[in-house]
Write a sequence for this structure.
């Protein structure tokens, strides 16, 4: 039975910064989410705030408000945001302290470790609760350098990449994972960020907490372990950031070290600039330009997926038609349409392999 948890977003619930919370609201096998703490959306349903779909998960103004109104006793408070630089917002501290005083352990996916906050750490120790900083890096002796064992993996490896960060790569990967398994394709998904761990996927590592020299080896190790233990037909890799995001380029490791020969590429038609750098005028690459770059790595984009949260139905359909005609590959909007139409594409790469 999954332990109960509440998720702290504190005003971020309707923004891309709450992508950790959004992921947990959509799926988690690790926690049973019973409430969201966000003073901006008090009294609403968390799913309706996120994407207009009722989930029956209420939003409370504060942790104190939760304990006043609910008879449930959550085991965990989860920090549900991803901030620039991974810093803990000061506004979160009071709610964390209240949760600890109520005997609630705290799960934190930020780079700003709670165990380094002296007051929080000493309070947690006194109350006998855990501070779980999942982005703490592994010790060097526990990491693996790249060896080349990836070439022994016979499963198809598909990387879910994007043209920018915070645009739904993990969500798309999760939907493809569910769709494939539902249709008899034995599929595993490799998580590479804190939310994937929180969602309970079996195989993965935290990409941006791994010493650079060992990223390639850790990618290889988790794929090889997954293949040897599970013998899946298909392995999906959750992408991080993007190949050209200037604040933290990433993705080439999945193509080169992880030997992902196929790519599902996530785009955001209504986003013109890299997220958070609009003032610098840093333009996102076009889908065609990013496909060309991925091709130069020796990999093939087999489908485009659209982050279409703020697009009208008509705009989505028009954009899909234009891109499919231009690029000759399927284009889907996972949040509104699901990913079932990608099944023939996935089946075709499995036949070729």
């Amino acid at each position: 039975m999954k332990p109960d948890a509440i998720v702290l977003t504190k005003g971020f619930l309707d923004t891309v910064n709450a992508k950790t919370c959004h992921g947990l609201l959509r799926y988690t096998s690790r926690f049973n989410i019973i409430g969201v703490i966000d003073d901006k959306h008090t009294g609403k349903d968390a799913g309706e705030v996120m994407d207009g779909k009722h989930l029956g998960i209420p939003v409370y103004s504060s942790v104190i408000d939760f304990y006043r109104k609910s008879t449930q006793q959550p085991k965990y408070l989860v920090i549900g945001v991803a901030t620039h630089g991974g810093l803990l917002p000061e506004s979160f501290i009071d709610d964390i302290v209240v949760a600890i005083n109520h005997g609630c352990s705290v799960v934190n996916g930020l780079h700003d470790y709670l165990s380094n906050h002296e007051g929080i750490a000493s309070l947690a120790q006194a109350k006998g609760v855990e501070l779980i900083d999942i982005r703490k890096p592994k010790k060097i002796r526990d990491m693996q350098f790249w060896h080349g064992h990836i070439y022994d993996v016979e499963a198809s490896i598909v990387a879910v990449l994007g043209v920018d960060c915070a645009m739904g790569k993990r969500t798309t990967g999760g939907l493809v994972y569910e769709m494939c398994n539902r249709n008899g394709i034995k599929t595993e998904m490799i998580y590479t960020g804190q939310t994937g761990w929180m969602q309970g996927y079996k195989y993965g590592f935290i990409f941006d907490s791994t010493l650079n020299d060992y990223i390639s080896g850790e990618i290889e190790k988790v794929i090889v372990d997954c293949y040897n233990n599970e013998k899946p037909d298909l392995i999906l890799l959750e992408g991080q950031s993007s190949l050209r995001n200037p604040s933290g380029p990433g993705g080439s490791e999945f193509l080169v070290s992880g030997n992902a020969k196929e790519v599902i590429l996530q785009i955001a038609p209504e986003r013109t600039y890299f997220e958070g750098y609009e003032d610098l005028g840093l333009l996102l690459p076009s889908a065609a330009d990013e496909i060309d770059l991925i091709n130069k790595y020796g990999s093939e984009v087999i489908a485009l997926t659209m982050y279409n949260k703020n697009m009208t139905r008509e705009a989505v359909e028009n954009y899909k038609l234009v891109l499919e005609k231009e690029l000759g590959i399927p284009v889907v909007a996972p949040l509104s349409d699901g990913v079932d139409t990608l099944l023939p594409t996935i089946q075709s790469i499995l036949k070729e392999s």
